[in-house]
Amino acid sequence: MVLARGGSKSIPAKNLRPLCGIPLVEWCLRAAMKANRIDTVLLSSDDENILDIGRDLGCEIHVRQAEDATDTTSSEQSIIAALREHPLGADAQTVIMVQPTSPFTTGADFDAALGAFDEGGFDSMVTAVESHAFSWQIEEDGSATPGYDPQNRPLRQSMVGRRQENGAFYITRRTLLDDESCRLGGRIGCHTMAAHTATEIDDDFDWTVVETLIEKLGLKPESLD
After folding, report:
1. Which terminal Cβ of the chain has fewer Cβ within 10 Å, N or C?
2. What angle do CA 16, 11, 48 make, to 5 degrees?
3. Where are the domains of the chain?
4. HSE-up (13 A, CA, CB side) for residue 215
5. What Cα–Cα distance (Å) separates residue 75 from each residue in 4, 10, 146, 222?
């Protein structure tokens, strides 16, 4: 399921804005439709221009109600509403929440993640990139608390197994979503993606970074031919 609101505070009409000539939302739609392990691609939006992109590609369409498309609406609320209101929602057993703000996702990513999800017996799955970052928490009084022991500062090459969530997509068993109204829970797996997928588009700077990476790496949206 692709959630794509018409509104956006940081970048107006972000999901419709052309990224290297292709509307942002179309990048992830094409990737999801390319995946062999995804049975149905459902686009949920409150914007007819966004929904028209899905219609042209052959996606299933869910017209989101205004109360499920506000700035404060959680993704879980929007997902549950779409599953409740769309005819195909009743039979959905595994739900993938795909975020348009991560345009580098490929059909191969979906297939690999879903394969590992089933084989590992996971209840939910997050996507991430490898991370060697030394993180800190800044408190309200301005003090900084390290996420590691400064007296035993690890070598970067020894920081194995660490991941940074990249927000590309989430996989959730329907039973977990119904019981807990949360995309992550139970036994959680992780699909590790390429380093260049770390950036989520939240503002104009992110857009510039992603556009530059596309040009430098010669990346293109999935072909549906």
Report:
1. C
2. 30
3. 2-103+199-217
4. 9
5. 10, 18, 30, 25
The architecture (CATH level 2) of 2-103+199-217 comes to: Alpha-Beta Complex (3.90)
pLDDT at 124 over 80: yes
- Best CA proximity match to 19, nearest among 224, 225, 222, 220: 220
Distance CA 201, CA 99 (A): 10
If you search the block for the tokens 């503002």, which residue do you land on? 203
Angle between helices 107-120 and 24-34 (to 10 degrees): 50
30: how many CB neighbours lie within 10 A of its CB?
21
Euclidean distance between CA atoms 162 and 133, whole angstroms: 9
Count Cβ atoms within 10 A of the Cβ of residue 20 and give its class: 0-12 exposed, 13-18 middle, 19 or more buried.
middle
Helix (H, G, I), strand (E, B) or coil at 126: strand
Picking from 129, 117, 58, the residue whose alpha carbon sits closest to that of residue 93 is 117
Using the predicted structure, report yes or no on whether residue 132 has a pLDDT greater than 90. no
- Rounded CA gap, 31 and 113, in Å? 13
> With 90 as the cut, is the pLDDT of residue 159 above it?
no
